[in-house]
Specification:
The chain has about 450 residues and is α/β, with parallel strands linked by helices. It is about 35% helix and about 15% strand. It is built from 16 helices and 14 strands. The strands form two sheets. Strands 3-4-2-5-6-1-7 form a seven-stranded parallel beta sheet. Residues about 5-25 and about 430-440 have low confidence and may be disordered.
Amino acid sequence: MTFSVAFNWLIALFSLVPFIRFGDDWKKSLQLPPKDTRVRTSDVTSTKGNEFEDYCLKRELLMGIFEMGWEKPSPIQEESIPIALSGRDILARAKNGTGKSGAYLIPMLERIDLKKDYIQAVVMVPTRELALQVSQISIQISKHLGGVKVMATTGGTNLRDDIMRLDETVHVVIATPGRILDLIKKGVAKVDRVQMMVMDEADKLLSQDFVVLIEDIISFLGKGRQILLYSATFPISVQKFMVSSHLHKPYEINLMEELTLKGITQYYAYVTERQKVHCLNTLFSRLQINQSIIFCNSTQRVELLAKKITQLGYSCFYIHAKMMQEYRNRVFHDFRNGLCRNLVCTDLFTRGIDIQAVNVVINFDFPKNAETYLHRIGRSGRFGHLGLAINLITSEDRFNLKSIEDQLVTDIKPIPGSIDKSLYVALPGDRPVHQETWRRP
């Protein structure tokens, strides 16, 4: 093939493929979401002033980041991204809702080599809903990279479908521990060439429920793998893992001068058990709720409360671990898309779930420990925005209330007769939430 023929062939090829020529102002071509003008707290604004472009990321990845509405890196992203890109292990402690997912997904996707057709990165999460959420974010920010294949695999779904999917090219797997270990032991998920393993919500993944599975999974990885841990709390289980042979001189990040998010205002109301539903009805009538999450301590109480709320005339979904996975996925998807205002759930929904429209969290049943409380109230006030946490306290909860205040070094105040809307209501123009009558999924 002569030079002129080859040149003409290349010109013809490029004319068929939309691309951004060198020197173009590529940001003008981005399809950006509406600018978020809500007030943000120092949890996400107290940065060094870095830009995403400072990390020498691929332009196609930057396009996906900006089209997600991520304008500048948050503090945890500033600390984490350059270290993760260097290949070093990371042990990061940061508050819920401050951008931890972006802190590991951005360097992970930057390092994916599309010429290699095997699994290069694994993200471990403790719940199915979080796996779906992280996989959706991964797909969105990698959409311009030209072929990054992301797969979510969790328990409660068809194993045969996962096996067939792994017959094709997969670069990134987002998984719950039990399912990915099953696929590894069956020889279907080959992880010996994985270069990066992430543990999101590491405190839960290293608890007694999962730690044996996690150690098994790590044993199948190659020696040169990188491990990144992200968590809001560092219990003894995480501290033990820190000094184990699994981590190689990890870079430690601690952005937890205080445990609770700055934008969340916390109140309690003393009630008897029989007064709780009446109190909840009063809150619904007086608060300006965009979306709310209401926590109960058992699956039975979740279903009973959801039925009561519906009888009161409010739109309501419910979700808990004993529901079929298909129903759970549907409820999660519909609530996330604003099809219902209120969601009643168990602690299944406390881990990493990021729904920006939630501005009120209500503990219908008060939790037994500080860690659970911290994760529950962290469902509001996401990414530095404002939120409200209200706790219904019975006489049996008084000691727990005091204990949690002391452990978290926080102030939970008695609920006033009128709550200032500026503490939890977003500015006009935010995404509306459509009220619908509740329907059983």
